[in-house]
Amino acid sequence: MKASRRSTSSESKMQITEAVILMAGSGSRLRGTSGDLLKPLIPLLGHPLISYTLDALIAAGIDTITAVIGYAGDRLSAAMKSLAPAGLRLQFVENAEWNKPNGISLLGAANHVQGPFFLTMGDHIFAPELVEFLISRADLEALNLAVDRKITAIFDIEDATKVQVRGNRVTAIGKQLPTYDAIDTGLFVCPLQIFDYIRKIKDTSSCSLADAVQLMAADNKVRAHDIGAGWWHDVDTPEMLSHAENDLRSRFRSTGAATL
Q1: What sign does the CA torsion over 162, 166, 167, 168 have?
Q2: Predicted structure pTM score
Q3: Average pLDDT by consecutive 10-residue portion of the chain (260 residues)?
Q4: Pairwise CA distance, residues 55 & 234, whole Å
Q5: CA distance 197 to 47
Q6: CATH architecture group of domain 18-255
Q7: Is 87 left (phi over 0), alpha (psi -120 to 50) or beta?
Q8: Which residues pair with 165 in a beta bridge?
Q9: Which has the closest alpha carbon to 112: 54, 75, 69, 61?
Q10: Measuring CA to CA, which residue among 106, 125, 120, 157 is closest to residue 51?
């Protein structure tokens, strides 16, 4: 599935045209079933996982994508170039420490974005309209996180990143939160200030994106945006892949669509 460019308007005070995709890891939990095929290229209903992300970003007006790669980066970048449409600026940042927490990957993109940017993961797929939804509601002075309050519908709740929300504020985030109100969908609109917070924890044993978000939340700088009926999937294991395929088949049948 080759992404196609479409123009769109945004209700946000500033049109966001840049996105970062974190995709440096080896994806071993999912790749175990697919031989040497790289995780973002594993097919879902006949199309590479990453194609769904590219389509969604482009449909929302994103014209510059920075992909942070690491494991088998040369192969992955070559494959992504073949999927990208003409006119899309696709640049790659290599994270040589791809086996470290994903905060290191995001920090690698610091010199490649110019202003507030959309952030997602190479193993997440989501309803295309969620990109514009989050951009149009973003507080560009804060970190914005799309959250899912449909907790009982989460396929693998143990693996999910939990979020505590008070009003529109994120107060805590982490996989081990004992109490929580929502789930982190992996979709963000980030201010450049996110890099300052990652630098604060860069030399600690854990330098994850969630840790940086927690620091920003402590400073009242993280906003939650509930996706309502919107759908998304974290595709991290064979079971998650199968669940995502079944869900998308059902959605395609109900809408009569052949693809996203």
Answers
A1: negative
A2: 0.91
A3: 44 77 91 74 95 96 97 96 92 96 96 97 96 97 98 96 98 96 98 97 89 97 98 95 96 67
A4: 17
A5: 36
A6: Alpha-Beta Complex (3.90)
A7: left
A8: 170
A9: 69
A10: 125
